[in-house]
Specification:
- By secondary structure, this protein is an alpha/beta fold.
- The protein has one domain (about 1-145): Nucleotidyltransferase, domain 5.
- Helices cover about 40% and strands about 25% of the residues.
- The protein has a six-stranded mixed β-sheet, with helices on both faces.
Length: about 150
């Protein structure tokens, strides 16, 4: 199972946003959106990580919004309620959740989601945070190799 870290950032909420994913000791990518929210960038980071990486993935995110969706299976209730939340309102960010959940369902046995404390001591989490913030500042994505190893 490949470990992959994801993060999103936004300057203002809404405002210019950035996302990033990285495989410890390996490849990484980032991207930007001129007008977004932090939650949208967190979801986008995971969606882009799944699009770019096949096989079994262990996703580490500092977003409880993302991790809890899968850990607590919020998505099941959203589908049962035709994309409505517990209050009966439309699920926020459905345009991103829907393709992410479709990808999840296609490989659910090969995906695991974990939470990591943001702005903590994990070098890979710090790396994806820096890439996401940089993308939000420059509005430019990037790719590369050489992400740090896990601490």
């Amino acid at each position: 199972m490949t470990v992959i870290y994801t993060d999103g950032a936004c300057r203002g909420n809404p405002g210019p946003g950035g996302w990033a994913w990285a495989i410890p000791g390996g490849r990484w990518a980032s991207g930007a959106d001129p007008r977004s929210t932090n939650q949208r960038m967190e979801i986008t980071a995971v969606l882009e990580a799944l699009r770019a990486n096949d096989g079994s993935l262990e996703v580490w995110s500092d977003s409880t919004y993302v991790v809890n969706c899968f850990r607590d299976r919020w998505w099941e209730k959203w589908l049962q309620r035709d994309w409505r939340n517990a209050a009966g309102k439309p699920v926020a960010n459905r345009d991103l959740w829907e393709p992410l959940i479709q990808r999840y369902l296609a490989r659910a046995d090969a995906l695991r989601f974990n939470w990591v404390k943001g702005h903590g001591l994990d070098p890979v989490n710090a790396f994806v945070d820096e890439r996401a913030v940089e993308a939000s500042r420059t509005l430019q994505g990037a790719t590369g190799t050489g992400a740090p190893e896990r601490g």
